[in-house]
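Annotated sample (chain length 212).
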Amino acid sequence: TIGDIARTSPDFLKQLLGINGLAIWRYATGADRSRVMDIDYSVPVKSVGHGITCIADLVDEEEVWKVMLELSQDIGHKLRLYELKARGVQITIKNNGLLCKQYQTQLEVATQSPTEIALKARELFSKNYNWSMPVRAVTVRAISLISADTPQQVSLFDDMERRKKRELLDDTVEDIRRRFGKRAIYSASLMGDLKMPGRGVHEVMLPGVMYE
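Output written by the structure step:
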């Protein structure tokens, strides 16, 4: 309980939990000196991520890729809600021995695209994971966020026309999902068993107009 923590030695809590132990002790004793925020203060979004522990081991890169692509759908959606773009991608991989590894890199161009984020996550995974053990949990995170309307330097090696078409496609997909639900449209590669809990892959909700 809070009272138990308040009566515990702060030195013991620091030894047990590090600096977080001291912070918890200060909260429990009412000694926290953090500033009181204004009523309309909102914490800035510093990263947007989604992770999941799979219901079975992922045994090859294709299985990991599908999970990353599925996770990135929510990340792209949240970036749009927050009106942000990601300049980097971070992944956390936990094997079935519960050992975690984390890797990150920068994107060539800031993006909200779920596909671009997933592809960069896959590249990170391919370069760094040695497959000594199967994968059990995957987290993908969009990092180094900037406002979606921040001007960007155009790269000579980036096909801007193709990028614009990709953004228009993403806008259309987002609108369809907003109107008819998250699973109204998604990549064919995400059909079937992704070894992810609670996906309801066999449940199909058709737009009402299709019943008329």
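Annotation: The beta strands are 48-58, 84-95, 100-111, 135-147.
Annotation: The radius of gyration is 21 Å.
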